[in-house]
C-alpha cells in the first residue's frame, strides 16, 4: 500500500509516519518503480498501530518505544524481550530521597523488598528496576509510620503472583514470535492502568459497603 | 515545638513549611508570648509527614494534596473521604482520542467497563474517574486488535477485588478518624506503585520459568 493508505488505515498522519521512518522506528518500505514511492505491507501497519498505542495511549517516549521495538526485532528469546519491556518502560518515578544505605548499598526498603522476593521464591535479576520501586515505597511507608512493612505486602504479592499467571495466559494463541512479543508489551504495559482502575472500583465498592455512614459525620476540625 | 524543630523532625525545610502555612495546607500554630513565634504540635508533624509523602514520593500537585487534606479535615464519613481520595488523585492520564460515542455518550470501551462492573456486582458511582480509565484501556486494546475484551478482564477483576479486601483490612487498628483517613490515603495512593512493581517481579519470574530459551534465538528481521 502507499503511504497515504498506511496513514488512513493506521490513523497516524503522513508527517508522523515519515518521522518514524527517518527515526528507524518503522522499517523502510519496498521501493517501487514509481519515483519517490515506496510500498508498505501489513507488517508496517501492525507495527505502526503498536507504536501509536505505546506513544499515544501509554505516553511512552520515542526512545522507550525504540528500545521495545528493537527488542522485538532483534531478540529471539521471549524472556529477554519481556525483561526489556518490564525494565525499559518508565517505572513510576519516585523522587530520590537521602537515605541511610545498608552495607550492601541498598536502602532498608530495598533490603526488605529482597526479603519479600526470597520469601515468594521469585527468580528475578537482582538489578531489576521494580526492586528499587518496591523498596522506595517501603521506605516511604516506614517514613510515615504506616505500620505496613514487607510482611504486610506478602498477601498482596500472592495475589499479584496469580495476576501474573493470567498475564502469561494472554500469551497463548499467538502465531509467531513478533505477535507473542507484541502481546507481551500490551499485557505488561497497557493493562497497568486497567488494573489500577479495577482496584479503585473494587475499593469504592468495599468502601460503600463498610464505611458509608461511619461515625463522625458533620464534624469539622 | 518551634518551627525549627518541626522542620528537623519532619525533614521539610522551614521555607517550605511557611509556604504550606500560607497556603493553608498546614493549620497555623498556637501563638506564643514570644513575638513572631508559634508553637506546633504532634498533629502538625503528622500532617506535614503526610504532605511530604504525597508531594515528594507520589508527586501529587499541591492542589491535589489540598483536596485530600480538606477531605480529611472537613468530611466525617470515611466513605466520602475514600471517594475523594480515589477520584481526586491524578488518574493515569490517557490521551483523548476521537472515538465514536455510543448513544449514552460513552465510548464502546466505557460501555464495556460498565458491563464488567455490573457483572462483578460492584456498587460504584456512575461518574467515577476509574470507569473512564478502564474504558480507555479497553478502547486501546480494541484498537490494536489485542483480542482482550472486557470478559478477558473478569479474572483480573476478581483478583483485584480480593486485593481491595486486603486494602480495607489495612484500615483496622486506626484509633481515630484522622488516622483512618490517613491510612486510606496511604493504602490507596502509596501502594499503587508497589502493586505494579510486584506484578513486574512476578511476571519476570513466570517469564523466566516459561519462556527462557524459547525458539527464535538469533533471528533478525
UniProtKB/TrEMBL annotation, chains A, B:
Top-level taxon = Bacteria
Q: Which UniProt keywords apply?
A: DNA-binding
Q: Does the keyword rRNA-binding apply?
A: no
Recorded hits in Gene3D superfamilies, A to Z, give: 1.10.1660.10
One short Pfam name that applies is: MerR_1
SMART domains, per database record: HTH_MERR
Start and end residues of each HTH merR-type domain: 1-71
Which PROSITE patterns does this one have? HTH_MERR_2
Keyword DNA-binding set for record: yes
Q: Which PANTHER family match?
A: HTH-TYPE TRANSCRIPTIONAL REGULATOR ADHR, REDOX-CYCLING DRUG-SENSING TRANSCRIPTIONAL ACTIVATOR SOXR
Q: What is this protein called?
A: MerR family transcriptional regulator
Q: Which organism is it from?
A: Streptomyces edwardsiae
